[in-house]
Amino acid sequence: MAESGSPISDLFDRPESPSQVIGRRRNRLVNIIKQNDLPQLRQFIASCSPEDVIAPGTPYLEDTLFNAASYGSPEALYILLEVYAAAPEVVKRFNPKFHLLLDACGAANADVVRFILDRHDSPENRLPLGPVDLHQRDDSGATPILLAARSLMYLDNDADEVEDEGLHWTEWVRDRFARGHQLIHLLLDRCCSATDVVPPLPNDLSPRGSQVQDSVLGLAVSRADGPLLQRLIDSGADIYLKHQHFHHARVPFQFRTTKGHAYDVTTLYLASLFYNPDAVKLLLDHQRDKNNTSPDLASSCDSDGRLPLHWAASGPGGSNCRLLDKQLRITETLRLLLDHDSTGINRVDNTGSTPLHYAAISHAMCGCSQHAELAIRTLLEYGADTRIPDGSGCTILHLLGYHSHQGDPVKTTLLGLILSHGANINHAENNGKTALHVFAQNLRQVSAAKFLIEHGADFRAQNSLRETPFHAAARGFLNDHVRRDGRDKDVTTENKIRLQDEMMRALQEAAGEDTAMFMSQPNAEEIGGREGSIPYQAPEEAEAEEEAEAEEEAEAEEEAEGSSRSVITGQE
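Given the sequence above, the corresponding structure tokens read:
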């Protein structure tokens, strides 16, 4: 306990700053809105000035009406709008932006959208609803129906809200999709256009720069059901429209593109990416029309040389990893594409990657689920070749090792499946690393490394720096564990040491009598002009050395002190 007058005590006793008071008040108001606690909302308004309600936070934070339109109920929004209507001078002074319709559509808040439209159409309406135009656009160029369709595709923006409210993830997703469907139907009933698009970037002068960024159908195919998609197509939406697709930061595709985004992306790509078999089937069936002269959607490549099958093998990543296996419908989507045309099963894109490579990369990163095994098993069933390396010389085994650093350990059953389909366990990538090099350095993969050794992985193999898997294990790493429920598990030093010991022990048992030779084998990396050897020591050895060094330092200090005393006293 801190003593009175101490710096720590002063810190806790210090009164709140004005900004802290504002922040606390704003957070309370936002929580009341999200919980739809109408009595508390009225009590809050009665206890505050209009300024505290209309502008409860700093300018860079969302205003009150944004939270009400996005997460509140029509009743809560009505109560707040009455405050705005009663204080026009405050509204004018703070000039809050009114985008109620756009905000509500972006959050798939169908009840609030209906409230806004009905109130706006009423001749008795006196609420300051702001512009209510079904064709207005936000700063990105999106209209209300585009934002409603976007709410189906992008879940990450609101994923934190789920955890904050203590909601069950799968229930929230199901409700979000239902609200999105309801909202898009509502907007179509109100004469919104199914052909709305987000226009191209004005400064993109590339040959394909005229392609749209988004379309209603391109966004909706991510999650929409067949009847809604059919309604959009019947209303004029073009299934062949080409988009430029910007990759979300957490989507593995970003690591395999030549630029920041891809061109020539049709609706089938997006339906495949989000594992929507209803959309995939509808699009494939729709192009079978006898009067259709357009190229086959499934065999058309994007600007990076990828087929829709590559996109389906990858999946969207991000919070979608938290969805249940049956919700994603991975196998069903892949089978639809491959039954339509399986000739692209081993097609390489501009980076030399096959659909199998994409499945390994994406779903290894999503290692807290069965998604990897579902995707890889299905691709292998249709003839995916495990021996094909990508542009860096990596096979599927390398890629699983490289990208499984945050999820659960790679299952040995999956490795066995891959080996049973002809994978070369000792294939070396361009830098000379084998799969065992990669798995040995990833300390979370001890069981996988043991499995590879048991099935013939060469622990003597050297990469281009003359490093063996012993070197890789010695510089092993262990990242935080990303869990399916979104609550990551931090790495402890104790756990890292334990896993590194296990990894080294597995290699030592394989090497047997040759262990000492491998442990002292230098690599070709020059450190201070000298070749480096394995920088690993067992914890007990390291502790012994530290204790010995500490004793030597203590003895040296005692000798130095003794010499000083001798000089001072004149003693020899």
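DSSP finds 29 helices and six strands in the chain. Try to locate this feature in the token string yourself.
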